[in-house]
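Quick question about two entries, pasted in order.
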Amino acid sequence: MQWSDEGIILATRRHGESSLILELMTRGHGRHLGLVRGGRSRRQQPTLQAGNTVSVTWRARLDEHLGNYAAEPVAERASALMARATGIYGMQMLGTLLRLLPERDPHPALYDALGAILDALDSPVEAGELLVRYELAVLNELGFGLDLAACAATGTNDDLAYVSPRTGRAVSRSAGEPYAARLLSLPAFLTRRALTPNANDLRDAFALTGYFFDRHVHEPRGIEPSPARERLLAIIGASG
């Protein structure tokens, strides 16, 4: 078995004295692990860092085997990510999100967005907006996408202000006001891309996505949300 693809390194772990197990998000083969023999060598270490994009060839005798990677650098952004807290926690958070997906299941749209986000984790607010939109995309890929296009009660797309915690559908301000205490807040920037969120908007947006991750993913699987997510939220709150 053999294939070649491009992938972004999510994480590495040591294997034996000199090798690494590489966890990649690839465009055509999804989240995929493989062994890099000699991956801890001085020559390969700078390339094999989380956040970098590499060109890989994977080989194995059988498809279900771990297999071996041969990797070459394409884009080295790990040092820039490690230079700022939003880069460190953003990378960790993205890796945790992608591990919710089945291994080796292709998600090309998530792969394409991943590289763009990693290149733009400069400020807390900018990072927060990109990451919460990525959470919405992952929910959609998992089959739990939110319907924020129009009001569930009236069918209009004007002044959408709430989301039903039961259905995940948007609700307009006028239709939702009598039930506001039972609804989730919908920040306007999630439905109107021209708007720039502030720290409070991002807090509400992460509360929205967090609710549906807890309901549909974390609680059923018995797992905890990413600690990096909470640290990033604290940075965003401090920036506001």
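Here is the second entry:
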Amino acid sequence: MTLTVKAQIERWPIAGSFTISRGSKTEAVVVVVEVSDGTHWGRGEAVPYPRYEETPETALAAIQSWTGVPETLCEIPLKSARNAIDCALWDLKAKQHGLSAHLLAGIEKLKPLTVSYTLSLDTPEKMADAARTHAARPLLKIKLGREGDPERLRQIRNAAPKTRLIADANEGWTPENLAENISACASAGVELVEQPLPASNDAALALVSRLIPICADESVFDRDSLSGLKGKYDFINVKLDKTGGLTEALALASAAKQSGFGLMVGCMVCTSLSIAPAFLVAQEAKFADLDGALLLACDRPNALAYADGVLYPPTAALWG
């Protein structure tokens, strides 16, 4: 069966700006795909990321060059492009069968998820102010990766003494400051630190004292990348834009659990359409970092419902 494929680039303003160790941005640029069999249609969304040598334009071109034959999806080299199509195919299949996508994935029922809320990288004082503002949330994710991270951690913890914390250095630390920064995380009660060192220079993780679990993000993509993580990482962060879609994300999560890794499921800054498929993968994850749409100035219609730090399952009007 050959499907009709439509794709376009969309731009969604961020509420303020979003900053990590690699830079700042003020909008989420996504690629949206619609596939149709002539009767039913399905949608998917992807966020191409320069860190992985992808742009919205190259992803769009890759999607537009696809033949529309589902069996050839693996031939698309850009994983974000493959993700958008794969998620659209899941949505299409759900509509064709009149079943929710989670049932097609073998998940009997979707449960609401406690999700983290991300604080952008900034000065210690501004991050402490942000932590104070969001201290009622159950879980905050704090972006680190620049000089002065121990002071950021100290001030954030003082500003939000009861909130659970996880941290993400986005490859911004070095082997030389690794031990100091991990110790500061432990002192602040951080429960997990994500990708402290560059993926190309993370050997020191095998030698550092395990004061808190360490999670791979930029170091893990799909099942083929798991073998190189043993001894360095305790958790992996599954993101559909890295795996190439929901199909591989589910397989990666299963393989990671069998290999003894804990699970985190994350997202880029995106709309609810990106997060809805990831919601399925996150059902068995210890950490759900699915706040991408919460960082936007507005979300798309039929958006995921969020209240008091809890994210609720998608409706069929959005996806799946």
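Reply: The two ends are 20 Å apart (CA to CA). The chain has two domains: 4-104, 113-311. Hope that helps.
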